[in-house]
Amino acid sequence: MKIVITGAGGYLGSVLSLFLSEHGHQLILVARRDLDFALPANASFARWNGETSGDWAREIDGADAVINLAGRSVNCRYTEEHKREILESRLQTTRVVARAISEAKTPPHVWLNAASATIYRDERGRDMDETDGIIGEGFSVEVCKAWESALFETELPQTRRAALRMSMIFGRTAPVFGVFSTLAKLGLGGPQGNGGQYVSWIHERDCLRAILFLLQHETLNGPVNVCAPHPIPNREFMRVLRSTFKMPIGIPAPTLAMKVGAVFLRTETELALKSRRAVPRKLLDAGFQFEFPHWRLAAPNIVGDEKN
């Protein structure tokens, strides 16, 4: 397939492009700045500003698929300026991709757009799937809702669309793994808050495999949870990680301490304290098989990769 990946300059774009290249696909990687990783085989680079059409948009005409990963990082303080940037970066890029597809003489068969499992409410009592999951409230949820609306608002009858409601992705070079692993190795990997909040997670390899699966399975559309089938409480998540690093100590991080620390680290506690209990019902029903369905299997594999 010829696949155009917009917003390809981040962590997920780098590992996804290598994965798809290894599977023989032709790639056009689109980003605002030069890539900080080597172009994989069968890949070329195009620049965009994320707001207007340009040479990059011509690559969409005749492409088999588009994957849009663009959006400002949410790892920041939610000031009014940052909240505006978080929202607008997602809406503008999604809409400019929609415009490029609508103007293509031969539009792509499928468009996968990044989204987030944080769209669901803070939930500890039951799983949240694409059919029965309850949408939450607050700034992050409103961003997710608007983001998905932008994906589906344009009529594109020849292009199947799916919103990738992704959980936290854990792999050797994943930024979030770097944070959690550092805490665990320093003996600070105890429960965060009261530890009862659920962690929705996915191994990097399963995330990449799920994206390829979505490209290939024409029955999958609309919102799709891209997460492991077994979310677990934070206290258990951290216990497994500490055990994997053979660290016997795990100092807890009470909610108040996390709120104070978040101010100094210029981030938000929601990233660690919100309970996300998403499950990948659509993927499972379509026959997708996870290599790492449980965190107790995933953590040793990732840590082993890090050590190697």
From TrEMBL:
The lineage of its organism: Bacteria, Pseudomonadati, Abditibacteriota, Abditibacteriia, Abditibacteriales. Gene3D superfamilies: NAD(P)-binding Rossmann-like Domain (3.40.50.720). It comes from the Bacteria. InterPro entries: DUF1731, Epimerase_deHydtase, NAD(P)-bd_dom_sf, SDR39U1. Residues 3-226 form the NAD-dependent epimerase/dehydratase domain. Belongs to the NAD(P)-dependent epimerase/dehydratase family. SDR39U1 subfamily. SUPFAM superfamilies: NAD(P)-binding Rossmann-fold domains (SSF51735). It comes from Abditibacterium utsteinense. This is TIGR01777 family protein. Residues 253-298 form the DUF1731 domain. It holds the Pfam family DUF1731.
